[in-house]
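thoughts on my protein:
***
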Amino acid sequence: MEEKKENLSPQAERTKRQFKQAFTELINEKGYSRVSVTDIVQHAQYNRATFYLYYLDKAHITEELRQEMFQQIKCKSIERYEPEKEISTTSMDADSFELITFIYDNRSFFNLYLIEDTIPGLYKDLPRAIFELFEEKFTFTPVGEHDINSSHFKLYMAHGTAGLILDWAGNGYQKSPKEVAGELIEILRAIAAGFRVE
């Protein structure tokens, strides 16, 4: 997924954010197929003309929301790491997984993964974003002789990570983000001595 960046004023950015927040809340409340542009406009407390300044239709705001969150999943996972610097997994702590905090802070969106009538294709986005991130940016130093940098192993890791995150969401985020991050770090330490982000 490629995200196209527009040069918008802070007010325009805020307006678009409010539309997307309203849209997300409505999907959680009544299901994707039952949300209309009128619903979004009323929930966000704007008029239709303002909506159509930024979006062509419901499909347009849906695609922008998916792309934005897809890119954020990738960005939040690496923004704290210095490029090309080897990170030892033993030096990682609960603050090392910024993605977990991002997901917790955006629970309304990630709860969309848990409902039946959700954004079409959404279920694939979380594991695919993590897999793309591993493929494009991460080189792991294995514990032992296994090739953990192969595509199929990274795909396995991506789906496993996404599965644990969605299990956490499905259980109502009962564990704190730090607890979940700690569990993921323990799993990572079992297979990788370290990693480098390109």
